[in-house]
Each structure stands twice: as structure tokens, then as C-alpha cells.
Amino acid sequence: MHPYFLEMKQILNLTVKLLLLTLTIAGLVYLIKEVFHLNWVHESIWKIISFFLILTWLTGIFAHYLLSISKENSANILMGTIGIRFLASIAFVVVMLVLGQENLILFVINFFVIYLFYLLFDMYGLITNLRPISK
Q: Is 82 helix (H, G, I), strand (E, B) or coil?
């Protein structure tokens, strides 16, 4: 198989898994908010989920591109994407707070719960990608 098609297959695989994770999170949010009528969900939750979907996809594509250039710097590249995601998350929280969010505690709690879900997704992807290398 041509290397270009292999790379596109990997990007498509990342995109599908990321969309499945996002749909799962959105389903849980819908259940909590609409079915169980619990007040645990901030009104900006859809902005938070959209932010993490886009951020995780962009950093995943960026990491994939950098890893295709240099395999020997893989640890640095992966740590760099985690750092970019962390700094972008802090910037998002600051911007949202400056714009005047109500119920700040609920916003921050919802933000970091979603952050942890996407962080677990990244860790799972990292572990599954490193397993073939260790063999």
C-alpha cells in the first residue's frame, strides 16, 4: 500500500475514534441534562465539547505529521502536543471567564471533567501506538 494512503487511513481512524468519543460524551450529557433533569451541566457544555473535539483533532493531526517526519523524537512530540493542549485549555477557560460565564464553579468542573475524558482518549491512543513498537 502506498505510504500516502496508509497515512490517510491513520488520520481517518483517529477522526472516527474521536467522533465516537465525542458522540458518547454528548450522549452522556444529554442523558444527565434532559432525561434525568440533573443540574450538573453548565449551559456552555456544547462549546466545551466542540472546543475539545477540534483541539484534539488538530493536535492529533499535528502529532501524526511530526511523527511521520521524525520517529526518534516521538516522546518530545507527544509531550509537546500535550503541552499545547494544556495551554490552549487554559486560554479557553480564561477567555470564557472574561466573557462573563455565570456559575463559574459548575463551568470549571464541567470543563475539567471533559478535559479528563479527552486526556484518557489520548493516553489510550498513546499506549496502543507504543505497544507495536515495544514488540
A: helix
Q: Which residues lie closer than 8 Å to 82 by C-beta, 6 or more apart? A: 122
**Residues whose CB falls within 8 Å of the CB of residue 10, separated by 6 or more in sequence, listed in order:** 64
Long-range pairs for 125-129: beta carbons < 8 A, 24 or more residues apart: 125/14, 125/17, 125/60, 126/78
Distance CA 98, CA 102 (A): 11
Largest CA distance in the chain: 53
Total of domains in the chain: 1
Say how far apart CA 3 and CA 9 lie, in whole Å.
10
Closest CA to 18 of 48, 50, 44, 46: 50
71 is in which domain, residue-wise? 3-134
User: Rounded mean pLDDT of 44-63?
Assistant: 95
Amino acid making up residue 50:
S
pLDDT digits (tens, 9 = 90+) for 103-133: 999 999 999 999 999 999 988 877 776 655 5
Residue 112, judged by CB atoms within 10 A of its CB (0-12, 13-18, 19+), counts as middle
